[in-house]
Amino acid sequence: MADNGDNRTLDEVRVDIDSIDREIQQLISRRAKCAQRVADIKLAEVQAALEAGDTEAEVVYYRPEREAQVLQNIIDREEGPLQGETVAHIFREVMSACLALEKPLQVAYLGPEGTFTQAAAIKHFGHAAVCVPRGTIASVFAQVESGECNYGVVPVENSTEGMVSHTLDNFMDSSLKISGEVEMGIGHHLLVASHTGKGDIQRICAHQQALAQCRNWLDRNWPDIERVAVSSNGEAARMAVDMPGVAAIAGDMAAELYGLEKLAEHIEDYADNTTRFLIIGREEVPASGRDKTSIIVSSRNKPGALFTLLDPFRKAGVSLTRIDTRPSRTEKWAYVFFIEFEGHLQDENIAGIVGELEEQSILLKPLGSYPRAVL
Ligand SMILES: O=C(O)C(=O)C[C@]1(C(=O)O)C=C[C@@H](O)C=C1
């Protein structure tokens, strides 16, 4: 063992660990009391606004821009031996517990339990949030619109398969705003119940995106077995438990939740297979300093229309992070563009670009500015 001048025995080190843990615990309690004080201040501010005649005033306990700053500061100041991100994950949970003291959040996600969307919800909000599974992307939107849930989590794009068109379509008719994003590395496994052997498999079930993300592996290993697209990987896992001859493609959470065995691990065709999820809510989020903005824009159907829409970004030197097209549902052969770029709608240059786009387009709908994913 390397001699680093530390001659403590095992017992001595454990005594030190116990005393450090006591200190950490006391500090966490102090932090939690600060969060309780923050809640009182927020409530008093809203009461004052209501008394002053602002009938719409509402307490906003969850502050994504502040959380992003707290987590980023932790990553930036970490000096090791732990990784900045590892420490930030611990603080993610501390903040989640502090926020739950202020007000427990209800978060709707595209279920059932065991989906990557649930994992994304926990990654973003921590374990203290109450996560509520919903059967469709539309019903996640509806839960947040109606106020039954404070926030929602929906998938929006995958690095192998592209955009999740349902999510984009729902934004067209919704007044909800994007308040954050989460990225998740997606690892798929071939899962079976313990009573199902390799030779028993007659059907492989998964969400169509998962089937597509594992297409080459399936072609090589199971070319003659029927592939069945179902509503989610969680549902496929549930079917693998109940129905003889069914194998599912799903991730670790579903394997654990449904007690399934892994016949093959990491069968996704591309090793860095990543899905991006959006957090949807009813409030606009103030600038964090490291933000993204998403808009829907539709131009007149004429030559050079897309160039005209993109030129203001080029002139202002603003980077686009994503552009996608969906058919307009109101006009044949017309399209709407989903554009994402760096910056916040409150930034002067971004407000200028959006103003210019408004003049060029027949529809412009800001979907929100939100902190870039930290974890
Ligand atoms: O700063 C606030 O507004 C808080 O409510 C405190 C706190 C935290 O624990 O740091 C908790 C919840 C918010 O989402 C952001 C931060």
Automatic annotation (TrEMBL):
The family database entries (InterPro entries) matched by this protein are listed as: ACT-like_dom_sf, ACT_dom, Chor_mutase/pphenate_deHydtase, Chorismate_II_sf, CM_dom_sf, CM_II_prokaryot, G/b/e-P-prot_chorismate_mutase, Preph_deHydtase
Query: Cellular location of this protein?
Result: Cytoplasm
Which pathway does the record list? Metabolic intermediate biosynthesis; prephenate biosynthesis; prephenate from chorismate: step 1/1; Amino-acid biosynthesis; L-phenylalanine biosynthesis; phenylpyruvate from prephenate: step 1/1
Q: What is its EC number?
A: 4.2.1.51, 5.4.99.5
Q: Give the reaction(s) catalysed.
A: chorismate = prephenate; prephenate + H(+) = 3-phenylpyruvate + CO2 + H2O
Q: Which PROSITE patterns match?
A: ACT (PS51671), CHORISMATE_MUT_2 (PS51168), PREPHENATE_DEHYDR_1 (PS00857), PREPHENATE_DEHYDR_3 (PS51171)
Against Gene3D superfamilies, the record matches this protein to: 3.30.70.260, Chorismate mutase (1.20.59.10), Periplasmic binding protein-like II (3.40.190.10)
Residue limits of the Prephenate dehydratase domain?
Answer: 106-282
**Residues marked Essential for prephenate dehydratase activity (site):** 275
Give start and end of each Chorismate mutase domain: 4-106
> What Gene Ontology molecular-function terms does this entry list?
chorismate mutase activity; prephenate dehydratase activity
Q: Which residues form the ACT domain?
A: 294-371
Q: Which SMART domains match?
A: CM_2
Record keywords:
Amino-acid biosynthesis, Aromatic amino acid biosynthesis, Cytoplasm, Isomerase, Lyase, Multifunctional enzyme, Phenylalanine biosynthesis
Question: Is rRNA processing tagged as a keyword?
Answer: no
Functionally, this protein is described as follows:
Catalyzes the Claisen rearrangement of chorismate to prephenate and the decarboxylation/dehydration of prephenate to phenylpyruvate.
| PANTHER family cross-referenced by the UniProt entry | PREPHENATE DEHYDRATASE P PROTEIN, PREPHENATE DEHYDRATASE-RELATED
This chain belongs to which protein, by name?
Bifunctional chorismate mutase/prephenate dehydratase
Q: To which species is this protein native?
A: Halioglobus maricola
State the taxonomy lineage: Bacteria, Pseudomonadati, Pseudomonadota, Gammaproteobacteria, Cellvibrionales
| Gene that specifies this protein | pheA
